[in-house]
């Protein structure tokens, strides 16, 4: 039986020694550099342990690094090093460079969802562009880098937003993110993945019955932490996932005082 393989393997990279002052980092898709990692490489610098970096040749004669920026930074800082071994490819544009970054790094646990999000945007990846469009419509955004300060309209829950779009649709996810950020405008931790999932579920299940304005008012009158506590109680009593328990707790609060147009995770009552 013939094994499956990719027939379009591209051009062979050229193996070169490249001056470190000719190497640039594109922050549109590259990961935030970790000074401790650079310090470690510098302290233990040894050519026998130094793996070639991956570079993309630029029209201006420089080279963009898409794998190995910490090695490059360490080489720059070393007084006896002025060039590094590299596998150099010729790519047509920044989108291809970002795609190469994703291809090299996707199977490495060091690539965090936020890093993958921005690399995906630069590469024109449909899923990441969809997340961006949904959040923009909601007046929200992904944090600019892993560990960046959170705000009421910022989230680092890339995976949760992506799942919400997949299972509940763009409209429900947009409504959920907008409602959360408007209900708790001073709560930097409001756009947590569990709240995005729970609200998206509710908006999806109750398209006709739900009032976004009422939901915003109901949530703004609640303390987010106390709502989480109520959800924990429901989860212990009824089981199910944490987002489902939270959705039930939100529905119960929303329905108080309503004789019609009540909502639930099963749909309108």
From TrEMBL:
Family annotation (Gene3D superfamilies): Conserved hypothetical protein from pyrococcus furiosus pfu- 392566-001, ParB domain
Pfam families linked: DUF6551
Name listed for the protein in its UniProt record: ParB/Sulfiredoxin domain-containing protein
